[in-house]
Amino acid sequence: MKRKLWHIYRLGLKELISFRYDYVLVVLVAYSFTVMVIVPSKGTGLQVRNSSVAYVDEDRSALSARIIDAVQEPYFMKPRPIEYHEIDRVLDRAEYIFVLHIPAGFQRDILAGRVPQVRIDVDGTAIGHAKLGTSYLTRIINDEITSFLLGNQAAPEPPIRLVTRVLYNQNRESAWFMSMVFLTHMITLLSIILPAAALIKEKERGTVEHLLVMPLIPVEITLAKVWANSFIVVAGAMFSLFFSVKWVVGAPIHGSIGLFFLGTIVFLYATTELGVFLATIAKNQPQAGLLSMPIIVPISMLSGGTTPLESMPTFLQTIMRFAPTTHYVEFCARVLFRNAGLDVVWPQLAAMAAIGTVLFIGAMIRFRATFR
Length: 372
What we know:
Blueprint: H1 2-20, H2 23-33, H3 35-43, E1 53-57, H4 62-70, E2 80-81, H5 87-92, E3 98-102, H6 106-111, E4 119-122, H7 127-150, H8 174-205, H9 207-212, H10 218-249, H11 257-281, H12 285-301, H13 314-320, H14 324-337, H15 342-371
Parallel strand pairs: 1-2, 1-3
Antiparallel strand pairs: 3-4
């Protein structure tokens, strides 16, 4: 047993030395854990920000002017006036996302107790802003109408008072959460690509046969690649957590770093074995890259980080429960944002370990069948 552990250790060192002199992979890892975490998380937002608005004011009253003036930054850009016949043209050309149409006699009808309509035309192709921005504009219009009618009078107290408490992210900064999502994406990508690339390189150079004629068994070769590449990925992940997520993006880390480290190790046990499994199927590097694409993209995008798992179809939720990324995203959110302990996240750890064991057995079967 001691001899086997020594073999695994020495083979892993060989992998690390090989990685050190592969400058393309070194740059890829550094780029993935810095630029690919910082730029998307700060550049893509779930909130409405600087949405373009145009308006058609046919009423030209004090109330319509108040409504237009209330549409302000940072949610919306300064509204621009257009003519009624230009509405379809500006929407077709995507010049504006929202167009407000205030009809003639709007203020007169409000004061007379009638119910006039303000039309909001929305460019639905801007899906990120269309739904939430419409809600914002509707609330702005209703608030201005209420304020105009009441004047200096205090608004009556509603029969029910709604108190909203926002936990874990009081300012609802999407960059905080998205930085963690992109970090898990990069961990998933590299933990699959690196071991697959290492084993394919051995196959193309014929050095796998050299290893097999030595007093080594496939388990030792596989575990060496798993621990060496896991070491690279977990080191990059911990660096990215403190540098990219906490320092550059500014996301607070409330939970246990040690527990996050443990969960990442368990997750890498599953994903690196998946990379080895793909390497036993592919015959060269291009095939490995093409095989990994239809696997990495779905398990990353459907893991519950980009969209809630509950919003997906039931059959898809069931399928994604067999993906390690689903449990890892849930684990990271609970540990890093909600400060959950081991007593809360042990089901996710157990699920990732079980999936990793199944992938390990499959990789061993494929490895023996490929190189026997």
